[in-house]
Amino acid sequence: MIILFDLDGTLIDSTDAIVGTFHHSFEVHGFTKPDDEEIKALIGYPLHIMYKELGVSEDDIWDFVHTYKEEYRKISTIKTKLLASAVEAVEEASKFAKLGIVTTKTGKYSKILMQHFDLMKYFDVLVGFEDVDNPKPHQEPILKALESFDKNCEEIWMIGDTKLDIICANNAGVKSAAVLSGYGKKEELEAFTNNIFNDVLEVIYHINEYKNYKI
């Protein structure tokens, strides 16, 4: 069995880091800062799409992204925390499945975060934004992650908190489960999956029960 995890809103809460770094980038470039809720509503999308949706012109977007990454690198481990059930969920999942991470965050900084929390040791692969040409909801990130695993594995799950994660899973032809611990709204997630849980630990219990039921 293979279980793939999203990061933001699924295993970690980096809301303060993300929102604060967005405000920093707007200040640096002399633009009016967006509302916090506007930023939160876009978490899960790649940075350049978030900036575009926040009104930054195409000519300026990549300067903003560069400023963001420089600041985020400095504060990410300080202002990011694990969600309450994350450690237990990962530890439990590792007992019966191979694990991977599929995120739209920069892979380099995501690995640093997971090492900071002493969780990277449980994962065989981490696919970040720079590792693919087409980020979520395209299927490429999941297919890229699966290259690190047994090609004959039939039981594959993707766990995430936004519709992007679930659509990505659906496009890749793998099972999906959504959590309400992040940024996606239940009514929005229900359009793409019937497997909706309060947090990632509930999902792992469900997958384990499902696995045992099939045996």
Give a short synopsis of this structure:
The chain has 215 residues and is an alpha/beta fold. The chain has helices at residues 15-28, 36-40, 47-53, 58-79, 86-94, 107-116, 140-146, 163-172, 186-189, 200-214, and strands at residues 2-5, 12-13, 81-82, 98-102, 125-127, 156-160, 175-179, 196-197.
Q: Could you say what the CATH architecture of the largest domain is? A: 3-Layer(aba) Sandwich
- The low-confidence parts are none
- Largest sheet report: 6 strands, parallel
CATH fold call of the largest domain? Rossmann fold
- What's the pLDDT, averaged over the residues? 95
- For the record, the count of structural domains works out to 2
Fold and architecture overview:
The protein has 215 residues and is α/β, with parallel strands linked by helices. The protein has two domains: 2-13 and 81-214, Rossmann fold, CATH 3.40.50; 15-79, Putative phosphatase, domain 2 (DNA polymerase, domain 1), CATH 1.10.150. The chain has helices spanning 15-28, 36-40, 47-53, 58-79, 86-94, 107-116, 140-146, 163-172, 186-189, 200-214, and strands at residues 2-5, 12-13, 81-82, 98-102, 125-127, 156-160, 175-179, 196-197. It is globular, with a radius of gyration of 17 Å. 43% of the residues are buried.
